[in-house]
Amino acid sequence: MTEMDLSSLVEGLERQTQPAPEPTQERSASGTALVVSCMMADCRHGPSLWPIDPSWDARAVQTLGAQTWTAHDGQRELDETLTHLTATHDVHAVVVVGHTDCTVLGDAYEHAVVSTNAQSTAETHPESVVSLVEEAVSAGVVDQSLSDRQARARLVEYSIVRQVAFLTDSLPETVTVAGYVHDQTGVYGPFPNKLYLVSVDGVTDTDRLDGRLPDHEPVPVASLLD
Question: Model's pTM, two decimal places?
Fold first, then answer.
C-alpha cells in the first residue's frame, strides 16, 4: 500500500459516519461479547473464540489496526464505538484480534524506522498508530536488524498486548479481555492461519495463560516477545 493510498483511506474513514445503535436498545439478558479486529484484514472472527460463550451476542468492531483507543492531546481514550457498546450492552468479554500481515502497523513502522522522512508518518497515520509504533521502537521490540516479516509480527503482538492492557484498565473487572494474533504467515508455528492467544486481562506469561484456559479449550498459547 502506498502512502497516498493509506492517506486516502484514513481521510475517508475520518469522513465516514456510522449510525449508532438505538439508544433505547435493551441490555442482552444472555450477555454480549465484542470482537475487535482490523478493518484491513481479510478474515472474520466470531463467537467460537474463547472466552466467548456460544449463548452470548457477539458483535464485531472493526478499527484501523485493531486499535481500541483514540489519542487526544497526548492522552489515550477508549474508542467511541467501544464506549457506546459497553454503556448500552451487558458486555462480558472483549476479544482483540491482530493479524501478522497487518498493513496499517507495518506501513507505519516502515515510515517511522526505515524511511528518512519521519514527517510522512504523522501525516498519513492516526496518532494512536504512530504513538504505538514509536513506543515499540523505544522499547526495543522492533529494530532494523529484523526482517520485515519478523518486525511486523512482533509489532502486531506488541499492539495486541497493549490493547488488552489498556482495556483491562479501562473496563470493569467483570469484563474478561483477551488478545489473539491471527498468524497468517506461519511466524508462530509451521502452519499458517492459526489463532494464538497472547494476553488475557494484561497477563502475557504463556504458563499463566495456559492456567487461565479451561481444560476443554484447545487454544494455542504463544509469544514472540518472551
Answer: 0.83
